[in-house]
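User: I'm designing a mutation panel for CtaG protein and want to avoid disrupting the core. Could you give me a predicted structure to guide residue selection? Please restate the sequence first so the numbering is unambiguous.

Assistant: Good idea. Sequence first, for numbering, then the predicted structure tokens:
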Amino acid sequence: MPISIFGFQALWSPYFLALLLLLTVLYFFVTIKWRNKFEGSEPLKKHQAALFVTSMVVLYAVKGSPIDLLGHIMFTYHMIQMAILYLVVAPLFLRGVPWWVWKKVIDRPVIKPVFNFFTKPLIALVLFNGLFSIYHLPIVFDYIKMSMVLHTLYTIGLFIFALFMWWPLVNDMPEGRKLNGLKKVGYIFADGVLLTPACGLIIFASAPVYATYSDAGAWLQAMELCVPTSTLQGLSLSGPELFSSMPVMEDQQLGGVIMKIIQEIVYGCMLAFVFFEWVRKDKEETEKMTAAMMNNHQPDYTK
């Protein structure tokens, strides 16, 4: 059965699109028109604008396009959403917003101590991966998926903790907590290890574990998160098998595998970025030291 039966609003989330467009317009007003109101501000760089716009486009793709609707029908698409939202959109968003905007936000008296605590590398790692794993415990997952309020709050909360987790790796603040090259490598490896148990639970389960993908009643209630109730009441639906020929068990296993694959690709790219950045900085420091030594040993012909 085609998913078009759920209607335009469920497929394309026009209100969410309007919100992202408004946020993008606000971004350019802050970083260009109102830039002089920020202490230490710098002209907006092209790569920053590109990263921010990309983060908004990808965010809409996974949370506003038909992928979001498919994420409530098939577990595979749900895991694609999770992986891209927390492992791709979060770092793009962090790098897209200039450091002087982050500084203005972070330096607020109420925010600063909280932010400094939650961006400590060990705490950030444990909390994000812990919350992600707890979310995918069957009893927690099904309970949250059947409540609009809880699902919204948990999604936003987990995204905030994803920002905390990525902060030590990708922030470009001139001052503040940063990891050096070797510590960044260890941080990335630790992140991959901590996310593995949640994926393993899903991949190696001997039976379908999520009622919201295997039980018709629970699935229909969970569909209310993205489809207007009036639309659902006008349809006769027996379960997700109407829209997919893939068995629930295989769908569940594929979702776990895809999550792990995307994680490995993202962290692999991050490792490459960290390595080449490390080499570049090391080369620059070596050149500076060499130049300083040559200047010190240069003979003085004025004597």
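For picking mutation sites, this is relevant: Residues 248-296 form the longest helix (49 residues). The chain is about 75% helix and 0% strand.
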